[in-house]
Design goal:
The complex is a heterodimer.
Chain A lengths: L3 E12 L6 E12 L3 E5 L6 H8 L7 E6 L2 E2 L5 H11 E4 L11 H12 L3 H14 L15 H14 L4 E5 L7 H18 L2 E6 L2 H6 L2 E6 L2 E7 L7
Parallel strand pairs in A: 3-8, 3-9, 6-7, 7-8
Antiparallel strand pairs in A: 1-2, 1-4, 4-5, 9-10
Chain B lengths: L1 H11 L3 H39 L4 E5 L12 E2 L2 H8 L5 E14 L2 E10 L1 H8 L1 H4 E4 L9 E4 H7 L6 E7 L5 E12 L4 H4 L2 E5 H7 L5 E2 L1 E5 L6 H11 L5 E5 H4 L1 H39 L1 H9 L4 H36 L2 E2 L2 H9 L5 E2 L5 H27 L3 H6 L1
Classes of the chains: A alpha/beta, B alpha+beta.
Amino acid sequence: MAQTVIDAHNVSKVYNPGTVPVKALTDVHLHVEEGEFTALVGPSGSGKSTLLNIIGGLDKPTTGNVVVAGKDLASLASNKLIDFRLHHIGFVFQSFNLVPVLSAKENISLVMLMQGASKKERNLRAEELLFRVGMSDKMDVRPGELSGGQQQRIAVARAMASKPKFILADEPTANLDSKSAANLLDMMAELNREDKTTFIFSTHDPRVIEKARRVVTLEDGRIVGDTAKTPLTHV
Amino acid sequence: MNMYLTLAWRNIWRNRRRTLITMASVFFAVLLAIIMRSATKGVYENMTDTMVRFSSGYIQVHAKGYWDERIIDNSFSNCQALWRRIEQTGVSSIVPRLETFALLAAGDKSRPVAITGIDPSRESGITNIGDKIIEGRLPKNGEQGVVLGVTLSNILRAQVGDSVVLLGQGYHGNMAAALLPVCGVVRLGSPKLDESMAYMDLSACQNVFSADSMITSLSVMVSEPDAMESAFHAISTTVDTNLYEVMHWKQMLPELDQLVEADSAGHYITIYILYLVISFGLFGTMLMMTRERLHEFGILVAIGMHKRVLGFIVVIELFLISAIGVLAASSVGYPLVNWFHQHPIRVGGRVADVYRGFGLEAIIPCSNDPTVIAYQALLVMLVTMLLATYPFVKIQRLQPLQAINS
């Protein structure tokens, strides 16, 4: 029986509730189990990023609750929430967002440093992750000298560095050319298959949707479709 | 920790030109402050040392009550036991003096003067009075002779080789009267001193004023001005304060101390204005560093970096920028002021005349006191740390999502 990693219940999000209310999410229910490879799809403004931000503890729902890895996010104070993100959630951003002054290896090590890992542990794991994402030869290269696809691979490695329960990726292929996007997705799917790393990513790229095992469709802040292509426990 | 330092170090070089400009502004501000403070401190020390040497000495020991009523009756016996006790405190030299007042007359001219009985050999080592003799010489030990201030000599129309009549009141109401040959004329520098001072050999003076073995003060010199406080404390605890009073120059020459303090305050205001300008420069850099990296800060907090760690990194960045500027300024500043300490700037023209008018050598010596540099360095680092509270607080209030979207 797969473990539940995300349980979003009755989640609504209203921006500017006091002035001009904008409903970003309405009564969203989402249940994600360990090992899923899920795509949140929908047009711009459908609420994909808002949902990812709420699941990632970067934003708070107006109503409803989100339980991640057995913890109700609303019960966590600011510092505890940062700690929780550090240990349980990996983030991949649309614009890669690596620290420009650190090398590829250092960017990955930084997360483990924040977790309190020893230098030896950090080096070993960073090198292993760089190997996994096919970037062993770029270990000491800074992000500015890497292509978008290469940076995003490093970003995925960084997200995995803390051994999180799941990785949230907001439009990870949006800034990549088609070849880089395909390579990245293949890599993410491989990590999902081999390590059972749970991936949830927002996208409106049909090529990405094609690779997803489960597709959750959002429209106007509501889930209007939830399709599993293969049994979720059998990814 | 090492990686956070690395991160801070690399971050400051992200905008190399801005960092270098900020460091340069700190460098020049600190260097200017070091030179200004060292020069003013050097001038004050030189002025104080000259004035103090010539008048009171750094510390004086009197009979109790003498300072309030400076008459010969309040003198005390120049005993060896007292000398030994003072010498044991490690002071550099001790000079006995008998100071009193008398009327000097020559021909039909007369003038009330301050008579100081001195030990010529000891006194020359401290006040350099021998170098100020413009005619004749100092009296020898036991010689009945007088050295007149140059203006006094002119008023009395008494030159070297002439005699003057001294009339005054001696110890315990005795009559003091003597015919004294003028053995020297001295130019002290101060117009007031030049028209009112006359010097005699101590034993001759004691003899004339019927004050055998009596002195009114023991002037104590210290090796350097900063040693005065500890010497004062040591002497105060050594001598019997029921019999003697111990005073330092700031108590005896309060006007000089106040002059130095008041002038110092003006210089401090200039330096503080300089630092205020630099603070704005630093703050501007800090503001830009914080603003332009808000998105990155948001990402770092999102992936799990604690805000206090992030704030700490930014504070280290500012610390490094200031510290490099301060270190560079100190490295250049110290040898510079030390050189000017060894080779004081010689003042010429009318300014030199003003200096000489006050009996001072016309030089601007820089103080090489390392505390001047340490103080400026500390002040700038303190200002930096105060300014760093802004980005630190801003980061503590940071909302990661808003920062990411900024």
